[in-house]
Amino acid sequence: MRAAGITRDGRRSLLALAVLGLCSALVVPFAGTARAAVEINPLKVVLLGDSYAAGNGARDADGDRNYEGPKGCYRSPTNWASQYVDWLRSQGYQVTFVNRACSGGVIADYTSRRHMDDKRVAIFASASTPQDEIVQQALDEECTTRYAGDEAYTAEYETFDFVLGAHVVKCDRWMEPQIDAIGEDTDLVLMTGGGNDVNFAEIVKQCFAPFYRDPGDCRDNVDNARQGLDDVENDLVGAFAAIRAASRDDTKVALVGYPYLANNDDFELVFHRLGFFWESDRYAAAREVRELGRQGDAAQGSAVERGNSAAGDPGFVTFVKIKDLFAGHEPKPELGTGNPDRWINEIEQLVLIENFHYNAIGHHELGYYLSQFGPFGALGAGTGIGSAVDLAFVIDTTGSMGDDIAAVKAAANAIIDRLEGGAQSYRVAVIDYRDFPERTGDPGDYASHLDLDFSSDPAAIRDAINGLDLGYGGDTPETAWSGLTEAFSLSWRPGVKKVGLLFGDAPALDPEPVTGHTSQSIIATALAIDPVAIYGIDTGFAGQTFRDVAAGTGGEVLVAPSPSQVGDRIGQVLDTAFASPYAWIGTGYNGRTGSPVRFDASGSYDPDGEIVTWEWDVDGDGTYDTTTPGPELVHTYTADYSGLVTLRATDDTGHIGLATASVDVSIDGDGIPADTDNCPDVHNPGQEDDDADGIGDLCDPDWSLPTTDADGVGVAIGPPPTATVLDEPYQGIVGQPVAIAGEVADPEGDTVTVTWYPADGCTVAAPSQLSTTIVCTAPGTYPLFLAADDGHGGVVADEATIVVTAGGYVFGGFEQPISVDAPNAATAGRTIPVKWSLHDASGAPVDDPASFVRISYATTPCGSAEPSGDPLPTESNAGLVYLGDGRWQYNWKTPKSLANRCIIATLELNDGASSGRQFVVDFT
Amino acid sequence: MRLRRGMTIAVGIALLAVAACGGGDSDRLATLRSDPMADYELPGAVDARDTQSAGSTGPGVPSPAKVRRTFTVAEGGVPDALTTLADAARADGWTLHDRAPNGYSGEKTIDDLLAQIVIAGIDADDIVWVEISTRDR
Question: Contact B15/B59 with Cβ under 8 angstroms?
Answer without folding.
Answer: yes
